[in-house]
Amino acid sequence: MANYNTSDFRKGLKVQIDGNPYIMIECNFVKPGKGQALYKCKLRDLTRGTVLDRTYKSGDELEAADIHETDTTFLYEMGGTYYFMEQETFEQYELPKETLDEAWKYLLPEMACKMLLFNNAPIGITPPNHVILKVVYTEPAVRGNTATNVTKPAKLETGAEILVPNFVENEEMIKVDTRTGEYIERVK
Predict the structure, then answer these.
(1) Which of 52, 88, 154, 181 is the most exposed, having the fewest neighbouring CB atoms within 10 Å of its CB?
(2) DSSP string, 90-122
């Protein structure tokens, strides 16, 4: 397995610490007046979601994690478990709702997703950046609230709840940014 030297450290680097996969979410170079240069890093555990703060001296190394992304299709959800199929080999994977973090809110059957695999075992998914979903329920608009950007909660067909502008009504299709969970626009 390859190793990364401190000179390779950057945001987004996937490494392995004590057998667990981590992604570097922050890396700052610090050169004190005296002594060796330091790299202050924040690493998120890709399986548990916990964050580690670590400081490395120049010349230290971290082991590269055996992580790769593959194209999958979301098949269905049953009893809190989500089922996916790899598009090339047709191999099926299952992930519990807890592992998906917030991504479950935007999944519809037959939707293409990127799956993150660590040692060929699924550890997470990335839905498309923008999805089109139907508003199942939202309160009717209140007359007179048009002067400012008034928002209201709306329940979507996947079970997610997001804030939408006051003019959005039941049964309308809307575009949602899956990275932020925010409303983008109405879709005809």
Answers:
(1) 88
(2) --EEEEEHHHHTTGGGG--TT-EEEEEEETTEE
Any residues with CB less than 8 A from the CB of 34 and at least 6 apart, and which? none
Strand 20-30 to strand 38-45: parallel, antiparallel, or no bridges (unpaired)? antiparallel
The answer to whether 175 touches 130, Cβ cutoff 8 Å, is yes
Is residue 142 a contact partner of residue 156, using CB atoms and an 8 Å limit? no
d(CA 133, CA 186): 10
Across 62-91, average pLDDT:
93
Query: What would the two tokens of residue 164 be?
Result: 């939408």
pLDDT band of 146, cuts 50, 70, 90:
low
CA 117 to the chain's CA centroid: 14
The predicted-structure confidence for 21-49, as pLDDT tens digits, reads as follows: 998 999 999 988 888 889 999 998 888 87
Distance, first Cα to last Cα, the chain: 50
Whole-structure pTM value: 0.74
Query: Residue 169 in contact with residue 141, Cβ under 8 Å?
Result: yes
Model confidence band, residue 145 (pLDDT cutoffs 50, 70, 90): low
